[in-house]
Amino acid sequence: MLSVEHVTKRYGNFTALEDINLAFENGVYGLLAPNGAGKTTLIKMLTTLLFPTQGSILWNGCDILSMGGEYRGMVGYLPQEFGYYKNYSPRQFLRYVAALQCLNRKDAEKRIDELLDLVALSDVKDNKMKQFSGGMIQRVGIAQAMLNDPKLLILDEPTAGLDPKERVRFRNLIHNLSENRIVILSTHIVSDIETIAGQIIMIRNHQLYCCDTPQSICKILRGKLFEIPSGALTDGELLLSERQGEKGPVLRIVADTPPDGAVAVAPGLEDAFLYIYRDTEL
Amino acid sequence: MKGQLIHWELKKLCAVPMFWIFIALSIGFNSILILSDRYGSDYVSYVAQVTDEIGGQMGEVFDFELAQLPDAQYKDVLIASTYGATDIFEDYRTIGIADYYRSAFMITGNAAELLERKFESLQSSVDELAESGASLSLAVGGMTQSVYESLFHTLCRTILAEGMILAVLMALYSCGCEGLFRTSSNVYSSRTGRSIQKSKLTASAITSLIAYAAVASTSVGIFALVWRLGPIWDAGMSSQFYTVNVSGVSTAFLSWTEFSVAGYLASVLLLGVVVVLIFHLIGFAAGMLTGNMYYGFLLFFLFLAFEFGLLMLFGDTGSWLLYQLSYWTPMPLWMGLNLWFTGLGISTIVQYQECWTALLWLVILGLLIFALYRRFMRKDVTEHAA
Fold first, then answer.
1. pTM (predicted TM-score)
2. Is residue A282 included in any domain, yes or no?
3. Is A23 on the interface with B (CB under 8 A)?
């Protein structure tokens, strides 16, 4: 449905993204990369906020830039820094977004009530947003992204500011929404997408590193991931992370051969992420 | 749908406290201007009463009828200033003004030719003023100069300046508020997208004009209440009691057509609407060009400074043709407000130049905004810009 074909984005001499090729079908896609890797640049090109320097983005074979409003009307977008008018209530803000999305007023009213209920803001729907917490604002952002019942839902760092309960609620919501639409969820928080994303897109050195299932990505560490008690590492051992075990600190390392006392562990997406971006400052 | 978006943009603009504060401050300031200069209001009331009773056209009949009126505090003063008044426009030769300017300012070549041509064409208007006896209008008698200057030189100029400033601020705010609230990404990725700029342009123009209308109507209303001109509103602008000093020449108000006070006020305020629109468009263009409210204001300020600089440079160096050309720009339009619809001064070269300048700039800015809009439609949106 949505395809990114040889897309490059340059700012003067700086190349933010180079020759990106992707194809999206209905389902959840996790866009996972460290900060500054180009996630937001890719997302902004998908939302037509940025124009590719080279290449094109197609929706059902049509260039999204030529489609203009018709394409944007199918997109729901929660930006990384969700801005709002402080003196507006959530209901007012959603009405404004409905006008921007050219939604029918009557239908929009019904949808606004449903969404405010969904994001648990019904009780404060007429309160000014300047009194809201970061989590509440983020929920307004999620509601506005879903207002037009988008075929392409793009969420840039959607769980920022949400408490653990809200995070879980949000993940469930996204999972339910993904049946008949494309959901692209950009994050550097692995747990946000590990369980709900069917495909993980990784960008490294401004190029597409992979677009695969979490299981396939984790294969990279199969048989190489171990946990050892805290101590000095030898050559050929790469420290990924550290955790507090029952008998003291435990190191999670990557090695071709298991060190003495090492316990082999099953790799998770976070391990793969840390391994892939081991040279990148996180 | 577009109407709905304009409505939302209007709501955004009206929610800015500074908008209402600026209007209130403008009305307050204008009220102080009016109320602090009420010297001679008794005399004005008397002239209004006389005009009501015997008409406001000086001449033998007026002299006779004025003498028959009952004695009053200002009767003798009025008789002294009106008795035996003659039509100053009879045998008036406008080319004399052109000759004076040419020799006093050493204007030669094309500039002198253009000036001469303008004053030649002004002659027919002066002949018409002479025919209608425009200079014999009593107006406000000996207080005409003071009242007309208060109304046009001071009040109208201030009202227009306030309207212009607010129009620029409204345009810049409308253009840049998404950057301020970090809502650019949401707004420009919606179905409406970047074309929201059209609604922003319309909404900020509407608020600018509403603010100008509110300030102008309230201020003129206060002026009318304070001065109680009554029938004097129908008096002529080209009364011999009113003189204008332009570049060293003190002359009667030589308008291209005859104006009453009310008619001239309406015309000035109406052209003021266009000037406010022009400044609104300049502000909007600056906002679109820079993509930022503050840089936009800086750009606008630089534009004004550049205009002033050019005027000063051309005037001081005696480059009169360039000086005349530089008067076809927005800032001198406001500066020359007290001469609108007249053929006076060395800066204007054609009949109703202020109207043509306004029209020209509406077209120029319209085209500029169209070009900037097209550029904006293909421009990357960054959160802190726009």
1. 0.91
2. no
3. no
